[in-house]
Write a structure and sequence with these properties.
The structure is a homotrimer of 215-residue chains. With 215 residues, chain A is an all-alpha fold. Helices cover 74% and strands 0% of the residues of chain A. Chain A has one domain (9-198). Chain A binds chain B through residues 30-40, 42-43, 53, 57, 62-64, 67-68, 70, 73, 83-85, 87-88, 91, 95-98, 143-146, and chain B through 57-60, 62, 119, 121-122, 124-125, 128, 139, 143, 146-149, 151-154, 157-159, 202-213, 215.
Chain lengths: 215, 215, 215
């Protein structure tokens, strides 16, 4: 039997679901950037797996779970193949990339923070690792297709992840039931993310920050 | 005496040759992007060393062999200096970047997979690490000079590496002679890569994937 | 009491000061690229912390000191908030990004090399780790805002870091007083960096390297 990467079956299921959701979002980005089959698979894998890999590198938990456990690789590959062959069907749904991405974000901020807590890092570090796990894959995706990462520019993207990771860490410290807390935290992140998209809410830009060029 | 990074003298020779070949390819890319001396050296080092560094980070084999063993650094620096001073001579040959790059690809997919096997990861992971070792440096090079990585877009680039790494892993599982298997695997990758360039063979792009924009 | 990340209080002070200086430089770059609050904070953190994180990953010193020690995170966040709210005031000074960046460069090449020496790597590797610590954050910053890293293209940027790191390693080998040597090394780097900016000195580009395109 394979060891559960995150200690509990619930975390594993959330993590694999997040990998698939992010994998779809990455694969679709690859299709749009007109990459070939390999490129689409790599983008699916990068978005689905890189956040967790960065987290495990920072925790010193090497080799990373998402790399040594074949189920993550299989799920990411499946997501890539799905977008490669069925991207037209997927895109018929309402804002598919955004919704899958929000799902991945919500699941990874929870599982990332939960794994960090198992490694006994501080509360602030656990929250940050949740955010890094959730946003790392998407940032790498944007760098690879040569865009300034969306998460840095606009929209509430990191904030929902921050909320989800904070709920996870706080409930763990308060001794609440992890299953209920994880689902609540993921739901909170998901709702805030979709609401921010729907109502077009963003973070403030710098006061007077029209970015006067010149040193 | 320095320890051999990959357990056998053959692997070390292949690895250093691959570092030099990739270093030339990186240095030439730096010359073309009009970088200065430091930039050319860094690009040579990135393409020559980064694949192996990423592999060793993922394996938890820290510090990375390509960093702690001075011979890798020396070979990468030598490749960078060679391209800096003699790029005009080098470019007189037929498609020099492509040929050096194919050589590096062929050698690294073999040594990357072989090193992964020594760390007792699964067969799929060993093949993947071979591909990552072979293609990681080139991807980073493209990101640094601000291009969408070629490997994601067109041509058979990862596929030859996949073939070479798979032959390496399969022969090891079947107990074949590692020296013969390594050379065969590298030759197979090299031939497929150059043939794909010559006949302009690529991977399929997504069906109907003209990349309709819009969410 | 928290452990000192670099063994000595002097190193810690230099390291935190460097983090703040680089954080200001990163935050200002974020303001100019019109990122939002989160983007400005991330850029400040990336430039302030990433060099040290890359160094610690390469040394296998995980989790990285700059991540597990909350003071680094707090200082980087403070630098980000400072640039977000007060960027107009800061930019009134003469070339603020360049000066803060030079300060970060000077401090990190010293602390990076000093930490590497504690891990008993070779002298060349210690110098290189000093340069990587000093220049890694800025390279990542340029990649994120989609520019070819300045350090690769023009100006004396890595050379001053090389000088500072070399002085640090050489004095340590010669048994000189580390406090005096560190301050001297940082000052040398700082002066060379600012002088190169003032007199517009750069590294040579490749001979005839007008970058003839075409393979």
């Amino acid at each position: 039997m394979l060891p559960d990467a995150h200690g509990s079956p619930l975390m594993l299921v959330l993590d694999l679901t997040g990998t698939f959701a992010f994998g779809l979002s990455g694969g679709l980005a690859g299709v749009r950037a007109r990459l070939d089959l390999y490129g689409v698979l790599v983008l699916a894998a990068v978005v689905g797996l890189a956040g967790g890999i960065i987290r495990d590198i920072l925790l010193g938990a090497l080799p990373p779970a998402t790399f040594s456990d074949w189920r993550y690789l299989a799920v990411a590959a499946l997501a890539g193949l799905t977008t490669f062959f069925f991207h037209r069907t997927i895109e018929r749904f309402y804002r598919p990339v955004a919704v899958f991405d929000a799902a991945g974000l919500s699941l990874f901020c929870v599982t990332g923070a939960a794994k960090a807590l198992e490694f006994n890092v501080g509360a602030v570090q656990a929250v940050l690792l949740g955010v890094i796990t959730a946003t790392g894959g998407g940032m790498l995706r944007d760098v690879l297709v040569r865009e300034i990462p969306t998460v840095l520019r606009s929209e509430l993207y990191a904030v929902p992840a921050l909320i989800g990771a904070s709920i996870t860490v706080a409930s763990s410290r308060l001794g609440y039931d992890p299953t209920a807390a994880s689902l609540l935290a993921a739901a909170a992140c998901f709702i805030v993310r979709l609401a921010s998209l729907h109502f077009d809410i963003g973070l403030p830009t710098p006061p007077d920050g029209r970015g006067k060029p010149g040193e």
